Recover the amino acids of this structure.
């Protein structure tokens, strides 16, 4: 097959997101006889790659880096050995456009890539249980940081007894997710799926959420067939088992591709300061009016953020969530960045000195060092 003579629209990889950009990136490798392809599944050092001649099983040994951020993952575009090679290897990883990354553990500084080259990050949230707005904010921070466009999908909308109640739930999430589309859907009855299908047809989407959020059921509804295994969530807390154990890339019949992921119990931030700022954009806007440029929004005079919280304009829950995520992100960054560690130590000393000074003033003691 002469791939160079095909337009990107008629290319065998077109349904998987192939475009002129990927063609340009892969050209140096196809000229060497390698095949371009997209990783649709990774499993213990081996991966399934869809290529112009079909799906091949390839070993990732040659691209195993010291940096865990550069391991092959679902959604990656790669160059693999041509037909006739035994075994076949992934020879190179094409530069990623986006990457959804979380921290692997609170005690380690490594990141784990959940999906690569994603256009839309679909955050699935079950309406069968009470909304956890803080968790939604955490997912949104990672989504914005990845470079993808977040989308919150409230699943199991048919379990909400009335339309008014559903409307209030959607409004709560919209307030939590400024600039993000929020959809209430029912995979059982098809409500909202036409709108969601239209959105995801425009590129690559990754489906994220806790176990029991209805991700696999939603994936099956978008695919139009039962491809992903589904288990019922527990009635007591709405949580489910990990029916999806690997990340799989699937072509949608209406256009676009979907990466389904296992349920995520932990969603640790990984160098996501920009993403946090995007989630709490109203706080970032208020901060521009603070008296001090480096205001920490804790107790400083002339703090516009605290003034908004005191007046009720800014919900206290939003401010606390903002502080929590920023602190967590600082701790992660400080593990790998010496400059940030030094700045944190300086800040801790400053706050300690201020605290001691305040106690001395309270006790009526002046000038004590």
């Amino acid at each position: 097959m002469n791939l160079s003579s095909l337009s990107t629209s008629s290319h065998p990889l077109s349904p998987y997101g192939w475009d002129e950009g990927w063609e340009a990136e892969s050209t140096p490798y196809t000229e060497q006889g390698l095949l371009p392809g997209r990783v649709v599944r990774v499993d213990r050092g081996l991966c399934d790659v869809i290529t112009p001649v079909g799906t091949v099983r390839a070993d990732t040994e040659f691209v195993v880096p010291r940096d865990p951020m550069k391991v092959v993952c679902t959604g990656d575009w790669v160059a693999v050995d041509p037909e006739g090679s035994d075994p076949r290897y992934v020879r190179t990883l094409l530069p990623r456009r986006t990457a959804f990354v979380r921290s692997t553990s609170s005690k380690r500084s490594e990141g784990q890539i959940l999906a690569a080259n994603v256009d839309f990050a679909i955050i699935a949230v079950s309406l069968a249980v009470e909304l956890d707005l803080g968790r939604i904010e955490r997912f949104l921070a990672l989504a914005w940081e990845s470079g993808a466009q977040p989308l919150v999908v409230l699943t199991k909308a048919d379990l909400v007894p009335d339309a008014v109640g559903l409307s209030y739930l959607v409004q709560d999430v919209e307030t939590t997710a400024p600039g993000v589309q929020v959809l209430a859907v029912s995979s059982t009855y098809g409500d909202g799926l036409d709108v969601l299908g239209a959105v995801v047809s425009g590129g690559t989407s990754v489906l994220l959420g806790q176990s029991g959020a209805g991700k696999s059921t939603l994936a099956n509804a978008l695919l139009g067939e039962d491809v992903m295994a589904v288990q019922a969530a527990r009635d007591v807390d709405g949580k489910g088992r990990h029916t999806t154990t690997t990340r799989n890339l699937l072509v949608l019949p209406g256009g676009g591709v979907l990466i389904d992921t296992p349920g995520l119990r932990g969603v640790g931030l990984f160098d996501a300061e920009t993403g946090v700022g995007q989630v709490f954009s109203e706080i970032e806007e208020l901060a521009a009016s603070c008296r001090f440029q480096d205001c920490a929004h804790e107790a400083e005079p002339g703090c516009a953020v605290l003034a908004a919280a005191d007046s009720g304009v800014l919900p206290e829950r939003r401010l606390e969530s903002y502080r929590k995520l920023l602190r967590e992100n600082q701790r992660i960054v400080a593990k790998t960045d010496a400059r940030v560690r030094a700045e944190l130590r300086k800040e801790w000393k400053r706050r300690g000195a201020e605290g001691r000074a305040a106690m001395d003033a309270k006790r009526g003691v002046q000038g004590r060092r």
Summary: The longest helix spans residues 338-363.
